[in-house]
Specification:
197 residues, alpha/beta, Ubiquitin-like (UB roll), 3-stranded mixed β-sheet, elongated
């Protein structure tokens, strides 16, 4: 988050440096798009052909395009009276692979992941993947599989596409020694659960 804030602040500073003089935009050119339609950028861009732009409007435009979550980098430059919008798209997920998962239905996991924004062709969000990994670990623990391992691996495919893999290794539930009451078993599970956190 700190790096993003610094990059964003840097973008505002570099934009302000060249935009000291306002000008009327006669044309807008979009560069760097690979998956996103230029029309999508135009719809989020608060500057239209014929608008007079100044430092404030440029800063608003950069902020608006970053706020979409589609872009890793946004730059605005002027060439005469042409506004050039250069973007670098955030990576998307090309595939999800589950290896070693026997405890949960893969389709159910994929649906749950999709509900939180992790699905093929969606923009990759590391924090959502981390939350999903923690939830899957929690699900194993609730089933008594305390030593189950869940490991996610992100494999970059190109500058804008990533693949996410989730590996699970099933653990065996703890064995009870002799005959114990169900209250004692619950007590053991509770104490194991606290240690594993």
């Amino acid at each position: 988050m700190v790096a993003f804030a610094l990059a964003l602040a840097g973008a505002f500073a570099s934009v302000a440096a060249w935009a000291a003089d306002s000008f009327v935009v006669r044309d807008i050119r979009v560069e760097g798009v690979q998956r996103t339609e230029a029309g999508t950028i135009f719809s989020y861009l608060p500057i239209k052909v014929g608008d007079r732009v100044d430092d404030e409007k440029i800063a608003q435009a950069v902020k608006a395009l970053y706020a979409t979550g589609f872009f890793r980098d946004v730059r605005l430059e002027a060439q005469g009276d042409v506004l050039i919008v250069t973007v670098q798209e955030r990576p998307t997920i090309s595939s999800l692979t589950f290896v070693g998962n026997k405890e949960f239905d893969t389709d159910t996991i994929k649906k749950a992941l999709k509900d939180i924004g992790i699905a093929e062709a969606r923009i990759f969000d590391r924090s959502a993947l981390d939350r999903a990994e923690q939830e899957l670990k929690r699900q194993y623990i609730t089933r008594g599989l305390y030593s189950a391992k869940v490991q996610t691996t992100v494999t970059p495919r190109s500058a804008t596409v990533s693949r996410s893999t989730s590996r699970s290794r099933k653990a065996t539930p703890p064995r009870s020694r002799g005959s114990t009451s169900s209250a004692t078993r619950r007590s053991r599970k509770s104490s194991c659960s606290r240690r594993s956190r």
